[in-house]
């Protein structure tokens, strides 16, 4: 548990986007709309892929878990941001800040490794299609998902404990819209060099390691696609992974920008915009690029709505 024995700070002030005071209402509307899409889209994906037995495959099992994580880690940060955009008092308690950082790190770390598991799933499906059902059986899929969550536990607990055991004696203004490691390190009234080194090492584990696993999987996928004799086969194989790769680059790229740079480069609102990319934009796009463009999911959605509509008078022409 974080200790307060050496701190005079009892709360922090979240100043993310405070330099855009004339656009607070517009920004609130945009973020609220995006957050609503995140919740609606990902809940819909979880509902559809659970409801229809034809979607009870490894790929959609991972998608359900990805949607769950997207809902969780956006819910950790965005509601407080929305409240602060309209409120005069933008404070968050010391304990609340620690809790926000803990759960944010836990869900974000789990998502990094889940994306790596999804890349491995696509590698097996494309490079070893005859062995796919054997390699990606239920036990393997469950273990990969559980492992993603397990990795997040020591990362979130260790980082939160180390950060909140630092002495904070003022100022207490965080130039970000949530409690994140870089702006908190800047507020500590002690030398944080060892903490920065430790954060960098953990970032390598959390960001770089799964990203390299993803790149390795896609290197094998690309080699397999180039060896295919059929142009249609190459197109279909590439279409199953191209969107995933785009979101991986967006998610890991913005995370790398924040965590793989020195403390001296942190500044007011420097991290707010890139953080929005992986906290709001990526979860909002995930249901579209992973599932809603998928013919199987669209077919299930049409059948589900069709059955419901058939029970409503005047809806027979759906």
Strand content: under 5%
Under the CATH scheme, the architecture is Up-down Bundle
Mean pLDDT metric: 82
Rg of Cα set: 22 Å
N- to C-terminal distance: 56 Å
Q: Count the DSSP helices.
A: 11
Largest sheet descriptor:
3 strands, mixed
Query: Under CATH, the topology is which?
Result: Rhopdopsin 7-helix transmembrane proteins
- Shape from CA axes? globular
Order of helices and strands: EHHEHHHEHHHHHH
Q: CATH homologous superfamily, by name?
A: Rhodopsin 7-helix transmembrane proteins
pLDDT < 50 stretches: none
Count of the separate structural domains: 1
CATH class: Mainly Alpha
Helix coverage percent of residues?
Answer: over 70%
Q: Structural class per helix/strand content? A: mainly alpha
Strand order of the largest sheet: 2-1-3
Number of strands: 3
Architecture overview:
- This protein is mostly helical.
- The chain has one domain (11-294): Rhopdopsin 7-helix transmembrane proteins, CATH 1.20.1070.10.
- Helices cover 72% and strands 3% of the residues.
- It has eleven helices and three strands.
- It has helices at 24-51, 58-86, 94-127, 132-135, 138-164, 181-187, 193-227, 231-239, 242-259, 272-292, 295-310; strands at residues 11-14, 91-93, 173-174.
- A three-stranded mixed beta sheet has the order 2-1-3.
- The model has no long low-confidence stretch (mean pLDDT 82).
């Amino acid at each position: 548990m974080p200790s307060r024995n050496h701190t005079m700070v009892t709360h922090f002030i979240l100043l993310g986007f405070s330099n855009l005071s004339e656009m607070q209402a517009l920004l609130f509307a945009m973020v609220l709309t995006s957050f609503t899409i995140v919740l609606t889209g990902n809940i819909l994906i979880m509902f559809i892929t659970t409801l229809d037995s034809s979607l009870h495959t490894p790929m959609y099992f991972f998608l359900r878990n990805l949607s769950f994580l997207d809902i969780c880690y956006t819910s950790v940060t965005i509601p407080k941001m929305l409240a602060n955009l309209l409120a005069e008092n933008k404070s968050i308690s010391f304990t609340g800040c620690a809790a926000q950082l803990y759960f944010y790190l836990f869900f974000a770390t789990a998502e990094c490794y889940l994306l790596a598991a999804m890349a491995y799933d696509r590698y097996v499906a494309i490079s070893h299609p005859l062995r796919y059902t054997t390699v990606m059986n239920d036990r393997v899929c469950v273990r990969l998902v559980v492992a993603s969550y397990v990795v997040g536990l020591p990362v979130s607990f260790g980082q939160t404990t180390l950060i909140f055991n630092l002495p904070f004696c003022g100022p207490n203004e965080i130039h970000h819209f949530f409690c994140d490691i870089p702006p908190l390190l800047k507020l500590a009234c002690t030398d944080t060099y060892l903490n920065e080194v430790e954060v960098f090492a953990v970032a390598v584990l959390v960001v770089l390691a799964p990203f390299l696993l993803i790149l390795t999987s896609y290197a094998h996928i690309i080699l397999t696609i180039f060896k295919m004799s059929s142009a249609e086969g190459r197109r279909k194989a590439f279409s199953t992974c191209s969107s995933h790769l785009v979101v991986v680059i967006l998610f890991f790229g913005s995370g790398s920008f924040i965590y793989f740079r020195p403390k001296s480069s942190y500044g007011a609102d420097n991290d707010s915009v890139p953080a929005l990319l992986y906290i709001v934009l990526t979860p909002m796009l995930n249901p579209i690029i992973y599932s809603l463009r998928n013919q199987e999911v669209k077919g299930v959605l049409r059948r589900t709505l069709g059955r419901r509509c058939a029970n409503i008078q005047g809806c027979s022409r759906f």
